[in-house]
Amino acid sequence: MIEPFDDSYFMKKALQEAEAAFEKGEIPVGAVITIDNRIIARGHNLTETLTDVTAHAEMQAITAAANFLGGKYLQKCTLYVTLEPCQMCAGALYWSQISKIVYGARDVERGCINLKTKLHPKTKIEGGIMADEASALMKLFFVEKRNLN
User: Fold this and answer.
1) Where are the beta strands (DSSP E) in 30-91?
2) Which residues are designated catalytic?
3) How many whole angstroms separate alpha carbon 72 and alpha carbon 58?
4) pLDDT tens, 106-143?
5) 77-83 and 30-35 as β-strands: parallel, antiparallel, unpaired?
6) Distances (CA, A) of 136 to 106, 126, 128, 132
7) Neighbour tally for 149: CB within 10 Å
8) pLDDT band at 146 (very low <50, low <70, confident <90, very high)
9) Beta strand pairing call for 124-126 and 30-35
10) Is 111 in a helix, a strand, or coil?
11) CA distance 56 to 90
């Protein structure tokens, strides 16, 4: 039986958030947080819009999810994000005690894996879900940005 709410389904929702960031001239990273196959939070990069270096997609989604749940811990929640979390976001995810992180494309320079950022011991991480689509959007953004300068 095909599960209608699988990782690809939710990553498509995160990609929609990344496209919203792209349209605003933000680096196209999008995120959604789920619990029991239900989206409870969405976010996309807003660092330029808010002139705030901490306004990453994951940070926006973490705050929205905590507000929705009425508490700071995101146990039993899954984060779907189009790009591997950076060190800052991984740190926030550590403190949120999120159960699972699913990312699309790797960020080999600034991502939490190569930087060896610790996640909460109970947090599972899985990558490569719709990585090609996430990477293509990121590449398109930077090609367009270079052509404008």
Assistant:
1) 30-35, 38-44, 77-83
2) 58
3) 14
4) 999 999 999 999 999 999 999 999 999 999 999 999 99
5) antiparallel
6) 12, 20, 13, 6
7) 4
8) confident
9) unpaired
10) strand
11) 11
